[in-house]
């Protein structure tokens, strides 16, 4: 069964447990607890590479739903388990859902995980290239007139969300490499869709301004800004 699993499932389990451990939690203490899991995952490269002869574990070894369920199953977590694919915002939306689950008392704590691994040069990579989303120069020029597309990256990150002191414990690959964890407070988080725009993937400036206004009350406390840039002429005028 492990051999048939998408490597992203392995990453979700490994990094997810590291986030739990950073909070001083171990598998035995988590069993049957009201802990929710939310997963953001859009890449299906592994499923596309499965052989033509189906195997008994192909279904559970692939897909976001199985990856999210694998996390709850392995650690016997009984809280809500939600997997989502909202393209490149999947990880952030997963964290948003985790925060809302806690706010509405649907679970005591929630683990949100996001993963993306590039497993083949065909599939998603080829699709994005043909659609003109990838930079022909091999570089992402965010907030730059030279922007002609973006470059894909890999990573898996897990956040242990808790209502205790409104904190998040964040564990990522770079932090794990140093054997350290970091704690942050979520002052504001919101999600919405662009609605009508020039095309399905085109941004709507007015809608995105509304989203920023929804969390602007928290911006006065910010000391640093990390932004998502599309790396395109339309997204970075």
From TrEMBL:
<dbReference type="InterPro" id="IPR016039">
    <property type="entry name" value="Thiolase-like"/>
</dbReference>
<keyword id="KW-0597">Phosphoprotein</keyword>
<dbReference type="InterPro" id="IPR020841">
    <property type="entry name" value="PKS_Beta-ketoAc_synthase_dom"/>
</dbReference>
<protein>
    <recommendedName>
        <fullName>Ketosynthase family 3 (KS3) domain-containing protein</fullName>
    </recommendedName>
</protein>
<dbReference type="GO" id="GO:0004312">
    <property type="term" value="F:fatty acid synthase activity"/>
</dbReference>
<dbReference type="Pfam" id="PF02801">
    <property type="entry name" value="Ketoacyl-synt_C"/>
</dbReference>
<dbReference type="InterPro" id="IPR050091">
    <property type="entry name" value="PKS_NRPS_Biosynth_Enz"/>
</dbReference>
<keyword id="KW-0596">Phosphopantetheine</keyword>
<dbReference type="Pfam" id="PF00109">
    <property type="entry name" value="ketoacyl-synt"/>
</dbReference>
<dbReference type="InterPro" id="IPR014030">
    <property type="entry name" value="Ketoacyl_synth_N"/>
</dbReference>
<dbReference type="GO" id="GO:0006633">
    <property type="term" value="P:fatty acid biosynthetic process"/>
</dbReference>
<dbReference type="InterPro" id="IPR014031">
    <property type="entry name" value="Ketoacyl_synth_C"/>
</dbReference>
<feature type="domain" description="Ketosynthase family 3 (KS3)">
    <location>
        <begin position="1"/>
        <end position="237"/>
    </location>
</feature>
């Amino acid at each position: 069964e492990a051999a048939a699993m998408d490597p992203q499932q392995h990453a979700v389990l490994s990094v997810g447990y590291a986030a739990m451990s950073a909070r001083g939690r171990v598998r035995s203490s988590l069993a049957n607890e009201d802990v929710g899991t939310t997963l953001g995952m859009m890449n299906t490269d592994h499923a596309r590479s499965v052989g033509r002869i189906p195997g008994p574990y192909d279904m559970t070894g692939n897909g976001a739903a199985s990856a999210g369920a694998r996390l709850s199953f392995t650690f016997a977590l009984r809280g809500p388990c939600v997997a989502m694919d909202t393209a490149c915002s999947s990880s952030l939306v997963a964290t948003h859902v985790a925060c809302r689950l806690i706010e509405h008392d649907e679970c005591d704590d929630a683990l949100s995980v996001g993963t993306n691994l590039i497993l083949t040069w065909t599939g998603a990579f080829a699709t994005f290239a043909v659609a003109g989303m990838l930079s022909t120069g091999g570089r992402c020029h965010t907030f730059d007139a030279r922007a002609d597309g973006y470059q894909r990256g890999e990573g898996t990150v897990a956040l242990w969300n808790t209502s205790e002191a409104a904190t998040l414990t964040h564990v990522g690959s770079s932090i794990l490499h140093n054997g350290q964890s970091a704690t942050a407070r979520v002052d504001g988080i919101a999600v919405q869709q662009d609605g009508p725009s020039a095309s399905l993937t085109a941004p709507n400036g007015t809608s995105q301004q509304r989203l920023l206004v929804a969390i602007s009350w928290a911006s006065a406390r910010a000391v640093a800004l990390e932004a998502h840039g599309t790396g395109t002429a339309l997204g970075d005028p």
